[in-house]
Amino acid sequence: SKQRLRVGLCGAGLGGLAAAIAIARAGCDVTVLEAAAELGEIGAGIQMTPNVSRLLIKWGVSDIIGDDLVQCRYINMRNSDGKIIQRTELVPKTVREFGFPWWVVHRHHLHVGLSEAARRHGVKLVIDARVQDINFETSPVRVRTTKGAEYTFDLLIGSDGLKSVVRKALFPDVTPRAATHNAAYRAIVPYEEMWQKVPESREFGNAIDVWSVDKGYVITYPISGGRDWNVVLSHYFDRPVTDVEENVDMDKVKEYFKNVDPRLKKMIDVIPQSNRWPLLITGPLKSWSSPQKNVVLMGDAAHSMQNHMAQGAATSMEDGAFLGRALAEVVRGVLSLEEAIHVYEKTRMPRAWLKQQASFAMGAMYMYPPPEQNEIRNLQNTSRHVTGPDVNQLSWNLWGAPETLQSVFAYDAEADCDHSVLTYLAEKTPWDRNTGMSEGVERKWVGWFMPEEYVGRITHAKGAKL
């Protein structure tokens, strides 16, 4: 039967807000509980690849962010000297192929856009609401915050990231891990300051530039409507990094990257301060949900991954979009809540795991030590004879050659959910050997407007009786 679901989300990060929008669009009453005293997002730049830029457009988020979204023209893969060894054309080629932009944006601007879109969709955002207790043994789920506020939800979603309180309640033994000694420095410098101090920096135009270096890489691109220069410096550390380390010694940063392209070295020297960020992996888990299917995980709480494919936040947002469509079927009376969570886990869990593997593989290829780095990887594009229209089809660079990962960059989470729901209904319900129709699929497509006594006529049509 049709119903109005009360859905709570623990965590108002990028994935949580995306999920809140999608679930509100499904017709649910949505409340987001955020532990912080004010909404916001820390960090630097982030890539919104076509698999999620499509969602920002559909939900109106891109209109809110406006010109602070940047569409770069190229992805330039460079060796340590700065020579371009492989190039991916984003405009018009990649945008034309996938039908949606490949944006870069400041995390803060993205978060503001998602927050405002959530409010416009009727989402209730509650700040300073750190969840302390979760009782999910019976439904509805009961939640209590550290300030004593109590909430009840038909479904609670753990969108609270690496240090998830919800995951700890469900799976107390699960801890994100640093699978390697790889970590990342991040920084932002205004372009006006960079151009003044390093005139050579003007040589790098509207592009995502990636330099391969010994035991690491550097990626730079413009954000904030082209006002700021964003940089990520991936490096090897002498021990696993499991938490953010603030205000690192910049002299050590500059020493680590002293042998890079002289232009890039001067740009790194301008960076006033930086933090070291961990690259942690969670799972793969056997389940993302409670036995009662009234609590479920998403995003980094379920499947944090390394950043080498630029898909961490994107995968979280896909989770939210998928959940929204699945819960819409509950609201319509097509699925039960338990069935919706089953479809979500069955479809999204393997997809997230494959993205974790792609991110890890890409990082391993970045971190190849010499001579493999130069002799095998960087010369690959010039040492093979490639035929056909796409010179990137055999590139080692999975991230910079989206043609090799259609399942990632061309992915449509909402369409995937629709297909998964239909597959579930077709497999679960009886089907007619004559017509090939299943009762569940017919009920989903026509049961919402046909009188109950008419539902089944299409499935079991005989001859001219239809």
From TrEMBL:
Q: Which UniProt keywords apply?
A: FAD, Flavoprotein, Monooxygenase, Oxidoreductase
Molecular function GO terms recorded: FAD binding; monooxygenase activity
InterPro entries referenced in this protein's UniProt entry, alphabetically:
FAD-bd (IPR002938), FAD-dep_Monooxygenase_BioMet (IPR050493), FAD/NAD-bd_sf (IPR036188)
Domain FAD-binding, by residue range, is 6-354
Q: Does the keyword Oxidoreductase apply?
A: yes
The family note in this entry says: Belongs to the paxM FAD-dependent monooxygenase family.
- Classification via PANTHER family: MONOOXYGENASE, PUTATIVE (AFU_ORTHOLOGUE AFUA_2G01950)-RELATED
Please report the name of this protein according to its UniProt entry. Answer: FAD-binding domain-containing protein
> Organism, per UniProt?
Neohortaea acidophila
